[in-house]
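Section 3.1: Structural characterization of target chains.
Under the original work plan, the team committed to producing a structural model for every single-chain target entering the pipeline before any wet-lab resources were allocated. The record below documents one such target. The sequence was received from the expression subgroup and is listed exactly as submitted; it comprises 343 residues.
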Amino acid sequence: MTDMTAKVSDQLQRPLRDLRISLTDRCNFRCGYCMPRALFGADHAFMPRRDLLTFEEILRLARIFTTLGVRKLRLTGGEPLIRRDLDRLVGMLGDMEGVEDISLTTNASLLTADKARALKAAGLNRVTISLDGIDDATFRAMNDVGFPVARVLEGIENAERAGLSPIKINMVVQRGVNDHDIVPMAGHFRGTPHIVRFIEFMDVGNSNGWRLDQVLPSREVLARIDAHWPLEPVSPNYRGEVATRYRYRDGAGEVGLISSVSQPFCGTCTRVRLSAEGKLFTCLFAAAGHDLRDRLRTGESDEAIREALIEIWSRRSDRYSERRTHETRPVDTRRIEMSYIGG
């Protein structure tokens, strides 16, 4: 690969900084907002292993992306811990020049103490853990496989002991489903270094039965927590940070609000997504992707792939959430499922 670097911007002058890499379309949970059991049952056909990008192919693409300004890598799924030898991939990515941060989004069900230590030793910096309720009955119902909260909390402890921090905990909030657990969730993690982020229920994909009346706006989440423990705003860590930050006035930590529906942040989005079989998506709500696996497997040079990526990003004008907010309903297009593209 030649020693070339370039900073590219899209049609809205947004740079390319973050690459999210889906490692599998499989997951051991059946959360209704992501992989509802009715559509992802026992007979669902997942991708065969031969279709997935190999670790070497992922590494090659990641290296090319770093020459275009990518500095942060996030490994997602599906559930990425299902992918075998994940620590080996992390080690490969961690040896690249230009990468400042490697993180992992997981439901923590498979995050044993040994796995957490192996990932940290390989170069993983931090984890984000999905946990949609601290009440056991609520959480078991939401994951729809009866998985207990206690075992996710064990995964969080394993990550903390391994030094995978800061740990962020994502709770997707649905009105009438788990919104009663907002204050208990905040309370459970108050006084810890962990940051709970409350996410508005989004219309990702076409299978989750999204309705606007199930969205609890972040301002209501904020009001509920503030009524118990007063909060104050905190400046973002960097331009384009998706979560709006608040800290407890008594110094007991912070929470985040991700308001993709009520306060979309398309204008500062610097993220691109790579699916498990090598399709590139420039928006979480995209309808179609760009096939990079075929370019890799038919012998295209790094330089040719790099030029293709520059063209793709330079033409990007995605702002789905802003359009949806203006129309107060889902935009009428087919969208890729979250389990396929990663959150």
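The first strand starts at residue 18 and ends at 22.
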